[in-house]
Design goal:
By secondary structure, the protein is of the alpha/beta class. It has 2 domains: 4-41 and 308-416, Alpha-Beta Complex (Aspartate Aminotransferase, domain 1); 68-302, Type I PLP-dependent aspartate aminotransferase-like (Major domain) (Aspartate Aminotransferase, domain 2). Helix content is 38%, strand content 13%. It has 13 helices and 13 strands. It has helices at residues 4-13, 42-58, 63-66, 72-84, 97-116, 135-148, 160-163, 186-195, 215-218, 287-301, 308-330, 359-368, 392-408; strands spanning 30-31, 91-94, 126-130, 151-155, 168-174, 199-203, 222-225, 239-243, 337-338, 350-354, 371-372, 374-376, 380-384. A 7-stranded mixed beta sheet has the order 2-8-7-6-5-3-4, with helices on both faces. Strands 9-10-13-12 form a 4-stranded antiparallel beta sheet, with helices on one face. It has a two-stranded parallel sheet with strand order 1-11. The longest helix is centred in the C-terminal third of the chain and has 23 residues, at 308-330. It is globular. The two termini are 33 Å apart. Bound molecules: pyridoxal-5'-phosphate.
């Protein structure tokens, strides 16, 4: 059984503990929401100020060349590639995850249709996804299914393998589920999709910077992901998009903007896509946001000399396992049910509990007590663990505060019942 002292000892022995210094954290708060909005890397404030005051203020238009602004989508893409098992030149930073998902799903459906031309195979009219996938993924897929006269079919994770057949065009999944933290087997599901002749599209929103990912090793076809969660890129940070090199010169994405053109500054009237992943850019990149995002990505890459994603994963499993153990021990009898997988191999870097009554209000009361997680409708208390800055002692203290809020019934007070726009 763990106690406060043993947690502190684990922090002393933690070879990743110095990474915490990179972040601006409030002394009295325990932040368990890096899966929603990562913490501010100290370097980002100074870097954004430099970009605003010097590069924009002094350099003005010259900075597109002199400060390397024009190359940022690729430069940041190469850095993220190191975290997700992609090669340099295969990934770019652009737009939002939703928009990138629209691009890659369209590209995937286009490839499947092109391959089916002249074939005697039955046409592929099914898009498969997970019922509890993040809503934006489902909304984008639903829109595309309507546009292409296809059907979007939503399944439980354990039903997917049985449903992959010759009528499936694309299997689109989120690697780590936003509500449960369940992690899917990317390699096995991609292989099964390919065996059925379908393509596999992965959303890495809760994976990039959180768990090791090997896109090329898994043979995935396309992937997208968020910059503002475990990559610590700041609110509304741009997202990323990856395509397997084997599709590079055949794939077309529908948002054919000038930044995805092979030679944007030739200003030709016809569209010629840039080679490879460059064609997934659309309009002018959000420069100031990208400067912040680069600091966020660097904060994760800082773990590379200490074992990188593998070392972060080991600590993440230890933190989430400790949290589950302490909550079940110290908050027993308070109606919390674990909804995240107990098996660490199936769990991302978050832990979620369901509670029939008061889940939203409990999260609000916890925030007032300086333990920040979030609520996901209808009944989930969600806690994200970022091993870059979360300590074992924080886990102890977080459970202490949760236990107090539940035992005192603090959450029943009226002020915690009013639901804000963002939960
Ligand atoms: C799995 C997943 N995909 C996508 C998004 C968000 O996409 P966007 O950056 O377009 O808002 C989220 C946000 O939480 C998410 O959890």
């Amino acid at each position: 059984m763990q106690d406060k002292i043993s947690c502190q000892r684990q922090d002393e022995a933690d070879r990743l503990r110095g990474l915490r210094e990179q972040f601006q954290l409030n002394d009295d708060e325990i932040y368990l929401d890096g899966n929603s909005l990562g913490v501010l890397p100290r370097a980002a404030a100074a870097r954004v100020q430099q970009a605003v005051v010097q590069e924009w203020g002094q350099g003005l238009i010259r900075s597109w060349n002199d400060a390397g602004w024009i190359d940022l989508p690729q430069r940041l893409g190469d850095k993220i590639a190191r975290l997700v098992g992609a090669a340099p030149g295969e990934l770019v930073v652009a737009d939002s995850t939703s928009v990138n998902l629209y691009k890659v799903m369209s590209a995937a459906l286009g490839l499947v249709a092109a391959d089916a031309l002249g074939s005697t195979r039955p046409s592929r009219t099914r898009i498969l996804s997970e019922r509890s996938n993040f809503p934006t993924d489902l909304y984008i897929a639903e829109g595309l299914a309507r546009q292409h006269g296809m059907t979007l079919e939503l399944l439980e994770p354990d039903e997917i393998l049985d449903q992959l057949d010759e009528r499936v065009a694309v299997l689109m999944l989120t690697h780590v589920n936003y509500r449960t933290g369940r992690m899917l087997d990317m390699a096995a599901l991609t292989r099964a999709a390919h065996d059925a002749g379908a393509l596999a599209v992965w959303d890495l929103a809760h994976s990039a910077g959180a768990v090791p990912v090997d896109l090329n090793g898994a043979g995935a076809d396309f992937a997208v992901g968020c910059g503002y969660k475990y990559l610590n890129g700041g609110p509304g940070a741009p997202a990323f998009v990856w395509a397997n090199a084997r599709h590079a010169d055949r794939m077309r994405q529908p948002l054919s903007g000038w930044m995805g053109h092979a030679a944007p500054f030739q200003f030709t009237p016809d569209y010629q896509p840039a080679p490879g992943i460059g064609r997934y850019l659309c309009g002018t990149p959000a420069l100031l946001s990208m400067t912040a995002l680069e600091c966020g990505i660097d904060s994760v890459l800082a773990a590379e000399p200490l074992g990188g994603m593998q070392a972060l994963r080991e600590k993440s499993i230890a933190l989430t396992g400790l949290f589950i153990e302490l909550v079940e021990e110290r908050c027993a009898g308070h109606g919390l049910t674990l909804v995240s997988p107990r098996d660490p191999a199936l769990r991302g870097s978050q832990v979620c509990f369901a509670r029939e009554e008061g889940a939203y209000a409990i999260v609000q009361a916890l925030i007032e007590r300086g333990m920040i997680g979030d609520f996901r409708a209808p009944d989930v208390l969600r806690f994200g663990f970022t091993p870059l800055y979360t300590r074992y002692a924080d886990v102890w203290e977080a459970v202490e505060r949760l236990q107090q809020v539940l035992a005192e019934g603090l959450w029943r007070e009226a002020r915690f019942q009013r639901q804000a726009a963002v939960t």
